[in-house]
Amino acid sequence: MGRASAPGVALLAAGLFATLSLGFYFNWSVDSGSSAADRLLATPGHPGSSDGRRRHRVQVVVAVLSARANHEQRQAVRETWGDHAKQNANVKLDFVVGSEACDVPEKVLHNHYSCDEILPSDADTTAQVAVDGDLEFMLRDGNGNVAVSTPEALGIDFEFRQEAVITHLGVYDHHGDGLHSSISAAVFDAVLGKVIVNTTLDPGDNSEFRRHDSFLYKPVPNFAFPQGFLGSVVATGFNERDVALDVLRCPQSNNSPSLGSVSSLMRLRRQSRRGASGDILPPMVENVVECAPRFLAASFIFMRHPDRKWPVIGSAERQRMQRFLNRKIDRETEDLQAEHSAHGDIALVPVVDVYRNLPLKLLLYFKNLVEHTAFDYVLKTDDDCVVSLQTVLTALSGLGQLEKVWWGRFRRNWNLERFGKWQELDYSGQVYPPFACGVGNVMSSDLAAWLALNSEHLKVYQGEDVSLGVWLHAVGVREWDDERWYCSLDAYRENGSNMDFLAVPNMSAAEMKRLWRGKVHSEERGEL
Q1: CA torsion, ordered 99, 270, 299, 248, to nearest 10 deg
Q2: Given this model, what pLDDT does residue 247 score?
Q3: DSSP codes, 56-122
Q4: Per-residue pLDDT reduced to its tens digit, 191-211
Q5: Cβ–Cβ contacts within 10 Å for residue 464, how many?
Q6: What are phi and psi of 327, to 5 degrees?
Q7: Which of 30-34, 174-178, 242-246, 466-470 has the highest mean pLDDT?
Q8: Which residues contact 474 (CB under 8 A, 6 or more apart)?
Q9: Over 50: is that where the pLDDT of 6 sits?
Q10: CA atoms within 13 A on the CB side of 138
């Protein structure tokens, strides 16, 4: 769910759908050696099964985003407001769960929002690492790429995932014959827009430069950067003899790292830059291809901060942690199988079930939903929310089947976060378009169908709520802003904890049951 009260992804690799073992979109046979999750997905009537049955039309689909281990929360929903869905033939209730668990042990996780491992190897701890080690792969297939001889500043954004020290700045040497004119390189703070470290590479110093692949590097005073630093490395001064490269097509090499790929130290972001030279951070420009930064122009060499002690885990310990985690994942999957067998309401989606994958998780769910179910509206919520479902159904029943309707409580002019759980790495604006907060919102079926149709082309952002705002902003939705969708538990309590709500978030299973009992009693006394 999006932020509850604070003012305001890593993307999966392109080969995701080819490598995941579970999913909605494939048919498979199940043998005696198949996993528990495979058997669950093959259960007749399960959304991911291959029995081909299409469910009857319903008025409303209720999609409850839920984590794999959240059995207690799901059961609380079933025993409270979700019981209305079970008893109503015009409602379909799905708990939307990722089919894949994160298989990285907690001790070596980069954070709890993604599934990225961050474990220094002996070589990585001591060796200098160059950004162009990630960029050089694009030079292996230059067909279709264009030389750029502009004096404008050209650059690419990055994120340091651990504390690091930059030791050299570099510029692109397309012909490999050294520089013929002076070219400047700089690292900017991408949030504040200020120059942090810069230098100029002059042609008279060619013999003193350090060459690495197609870049020339010059030493700079060592500058330490904190974990989570968002920067942009920029070069200025290219001309007809010293050209940069405009990348217009993806490389052909299968082992080429992609833009957005993760290492233990840094991540190349999905923003490139082009604009006026000087001490001003150039504006962002769109990449032509998703797999690569727009320009090969500037680079740097950096190393892990030498004064920090990094944990080194031996192979035996790493294997022990992995075996323990694998057993836990197997038990979790078996529990999901038993839960679905008992209730028939688990919708597995082929993603690793972590926060950063929520936008993709929702898109893939919508894709399957539109293919297999006819409906008028879909209500999205989380498993820690109490929804007054009957109130929602009563309101919708008088509307018929409307188009481009999005009903919720909308955040407006919501600032991007640069650090922490809601860190935004990919959206280029300063504030998000209006989006419905994550406690719950309803959209008409045509919007869900549009999302499903375009699911393979939509860029995902840090959370599913802001992503929906960006995506649906393009189609001109009709926002139905209703304050009864409480965006935080504090907001609900500040309003007197009255029972005239549409949804209340951020509750434990016990709190959900208490609130629901209070609402039922109020209805019985005729207070609502």
Answers
A1: 110
A2: 74
A3: PPEEEEEEEE--TT-HHHHHHHHHTTHHHHHH-TTEEEEEEEEEE---S-GGGBS-SSS--B----H
A4: 888 999 999 999 988 778 888
A5: 25
A6: -65, -40
A7: 466-470
A8: none
A9: no
A10: 27
- Residue 136 — very low, low, confident or very high, per pLDDT cuts 50/70/90? very low
Number of residues that this document lists for the chain: 528
Can you tell me whether residue 247 is helix, strand or coil? coil
Going from the C-alpha of 212 to that of each of 131, 281, 301, 447, the distances in angstroms are: 10, 26, 10, 49
Of residues 247 and 273, which shows the higher confidence score?
273
CA 293 to chain CA mean position, Å: 19
Q: Which of 381, 461, 510 is nearest to 96 (CA)?
A: 381
Average confidence (pLDDT) over 284-306: 77
Q: Which pLDDT score, from 0 to 100, does residue 76 have?
A: 97
Asked whether the CA dihedral 336, 340, 343, 346 is positive or negative, the reply is: positive
Spatial separation of the C-alpha atoms in residues 298 and 221, rounded to whole Å: 17
Beta carbons of 1 and 440 less than 8 angstroms apart = no
Averaged pLDDT score across all residues of the chain = 79
Taking each helix axis from N to C end, the angle separating 509-524 and 71-79, rounded to the nearest 10 degrees, works out to 10
* CA 270 centroid distance within chain: 12
Q: How far apart are CA 517 and CA 504, in angstroms?
A: 14
The Cα–Cα gap between 372 and 386 comes to 27
**Environment class of 133 (CB within 10 Å of its CB; exposed 0-12, middle 13-18, buried 19+):** middle
* pLDDT band for position 245 (cuts 50, 70, 90): confident
Ramachandran angles phi, psi of 357, nearest 5°: -95, 5
Q: If we measure between CA atoms, which residue out of 378, 410, 405, 510 comes closest to residue 2?
A: 410
pLDDT digits (tens, 9 = 90+) for 321-365: 999 999 999 999 999 999 999 999 999 999 999 999 999 999 999
Ranges of H-type helices in 373-483: 389-397, 445-453, 464-473
Q: Which residues of 7-45 are buried (b: 16+ CB within 10 A; e: fewer)?
A: ebbbbbeeebeeebebbbeeeeeeeeeebbbbbbbbbee
2 and 437 Cβ atoms separated by less than 8 Å: yes
CA nearest to 95, candidates 103, 87, 85: 85
pLDDT at 29 over 70: no
Q: Tell me how far apart the alpha carbons of residues 185 and 237 are, in angstroms, rounded to a whole number.
A: 9
Report the distance separating Cα 430 and Cα 474, nearest Å.
17
Report the DSSP pairing between strands 230-236 and 346-352: unpaired
- Output DSSP code: residue 96: E
By the 8 A CB rule, do 189 and 230 touch?
yes
Residues 6+ apart with CB under 8 A from 342: none
Q: Which residue has the tokens 């419905």?
A: 436
**CA–CA distances in Å: residue 183 to residues 238, 277, 425, 456, 528:** 7, 11, 28, 40, 71
Is the pLDDT at 133 greater than 70, yes or no? no
| Cα 336 off chain centre by | 24
Return all residues near 481 (Cβ < 8 A) that are at least 6 apart: 408, 409, 410
**274-304 b/e (C-beta count within 10 Å ≥ 16 → b):** bbebeeebbebbebbbebbbbbbbbbbbbbb
520 token code pair: 């039922």
